[in-house]
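Hello K.,

You asked for the raw outputs rather than the summary table, so here they are, unedited. I folded two proteins back to back in the same session to keep the settings identical. This is the first:
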Amino acid sequence: MKTSNQSRGRNWKSFFSHREHGGHGEKTKETISVNSVANIFAFCAIVLVNSICLNARAATPNLAGQIDRPLRYRPENGDFVIVNGPDSFNRSLYGSNTAFRADAGDKPEVSLFLPGRGGTIRFAVKTPSQVKWLHESRKIVARYRPGSMVYEISDPAWNDSILQMTILAIDSVDGVIVKAQFDQSPEQAEFIAAFGAGNGDRGSRNGDIGTERMPVSQFFAFQPEYASNSHYQINGRSFDLVRGALSSTTFPNTDGNSTAAAATTRIAGMFDDGATLAIADGTKWPSAADLLGSAGQQTGSPVVISRAAVKANQPNYAGLQVLASRTATV
C-alpha cells in the first residue's frame, strides 16, 4: 500500500507527465517531462540572477558625494537669489484670486497667463552707442521676494550705473506693473518696453514647470505667428489690444473694416508720461535694434513698443491689465 507522501509525489509527477503506455515495463515520458521542467526552472533562475546583477550595477545609491548638485538659488534676507540665471518665465507671480498669473523668472521679462498664453513683455535700454535687451545684460541679480521679482541689472554700456527693477502682480485686477530706476542715470538713455500678444494656448497642463513638452522658457516665449490677428489702438502713452476678430461696437479697427465677431483677448497697456508708442514688426523681436528700426512698418505680426527718456532720480513704469479673455486658441 502506498503512503500518502508517495501518492503526493506521484500526483506531482503526473501533473507534468503523460504516459504513452501503462505498466512498469513500458517506456513513458515521465522522466523526460520532469527533466524538462527542471531545465526551465534553471533557466529562469539564471535570468533572474543576471537581472539582479545588472540592476545592482546600474543603481546609484544616495550616498554622500554622489548627490551633490550646484546650488542655483541661495536664501538671502527672506529672498531667493540667483545671479545670471538661465531661465525665463520660471517664477509665477499671483495677484488677485483668479486663474491669472504673471510669469517672471531669472531674466527680466514677463509672460501673462490668462489662463492661456496672453502675451510677453520685455525691456531694453537704449544709449547713444547701442540698444540692448535687459535679459542680455552682463550681470543680472534676480531676487524672488514673495509676490514680486526684484532685479539688479548692470552692463558696461551703462558704465557704473545699476538698474533696479521690480515686477509685481496687481491684487485688485488681473495685471502686472513694472518699475525701473537707475541709481545713476546714463546720459541720453531711453527705457524701452515691447509687448507681443500670445495665442491663448493653455498647453497640456497650463504651462506648469516640467509638465509641458518643452521648458517654460520656450513655451511662453513670444513667436511672431502669435501676433497675427492682433489689433492695436494707441492713445498717447497707452494702448488697447484686441486679439481675435473685432467687434465694431467695442473696438474700432484702425482700417475701418471691423467685423461683428467678439474679441478673444483684450489687454490694455500704459507707460510713462511722455512715452512714445508705435507698432513694430514682431519678426524682428530677437533684436532690440531691429525691432526699434521696424517701427511704423506694415507687418502681419504687429507688436507695440514704448520709448521713454530715462531721467535722473525718476523711475520708469510699464503696466498691463487684462480686460477680457477667452481660453480658446485662435
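The second followed immediately with the same parameters:
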Amino acid sequence: MRNTLIVFFILAGFSAVSADPLEIAENYLEFEWTVRDSNVISHYTNTGDPHRGYTNLRPCDWVDSIGVIITGMPYHYGGKDTFAQWQDDYESNNFGPGAHSWHWQSVAPNSTTWAAGIDCSGLVSYCWGITDVGNCNCDTLAERATLISAEQVQPGDAFIRTAYYDHTRLCYARLEDALEYQWVDVIEATAAPYNKVIKRQLTIEEQMDEDFYCYSNSDSTNSASVRSTNSRRRKAFPNPRWVKGGKSV
C-alpha cells in the first residue's frame, strides 16, 4: 500500500528575502503546504535504520495527515531550507517533510539528503540575516550574539539554550500588560508535539529557569520592527491552523 501512494506539495509562495527578522519569522510561521502521500513515504526504508529514511518505529510526522493543509514549515533536525529550496525539493517529490535527531548522523546517508524543512537554529539564523546558515547551530549563534538581560529583550532578539538539548526561539513581541511575569510571544521551529514552526506565549522567567539565556544579534545591521505591545495574553497559543479538504477544522 505504501508503494501505491502518490504525492506532491502545494506552496504558499512566500519569499525569504526580507530585511526584517520578524517578517522572515512570520513567513515561516504562515507558510502553507499540503501533505500528500508520496513525499511522506518516498523515503520509507524497510531496513529499520532511521538514518536511511522513515521507518515503522520512526515514521514521518505527517503520515496520518494526508490531504491536510498545514500552516508552518515542518521541523527538520539540521534543516536550513529557504522557500526556494523547499520548492525545488518537493516539486519532483524527492524529499519528505521534516525529520528528527534519530534520522540524523554525521555521515551519509542522513536526513539532509531525503527530508526538508527547518530547525530552530536555521530559523533564527535566517531571521538574523546570517549568510553561512549551514554552519550555524545554537552554540555558534550564542557565540556570535550579545548576551543581554531579561529587561533588555526586544522583538528580534533570541532565547538560546546550549547547556543541554540545545534550542533557540525568536522573541516576536513583549506584552506590556504582563510586565511582572515578562510575557513574550515567541516564534520557533520545534519538534514534538508540533513538528513545525509555531508561535506561542511564554515568560522570560520560565525560559531562564530552563537554562535559556537572552541574546541580541550583535552583527545585525537591521533593526526589528517594533510590534505593538497592546496584545493581551491569549489562551490559544500555539494556534496551528489545520485545514481538511480546504475547510478549517
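Residues 78 and 119 are 6 Å apart (CA to CA).

Happy to rerun anything if the numbers look odd on your end.

Regards,
P.
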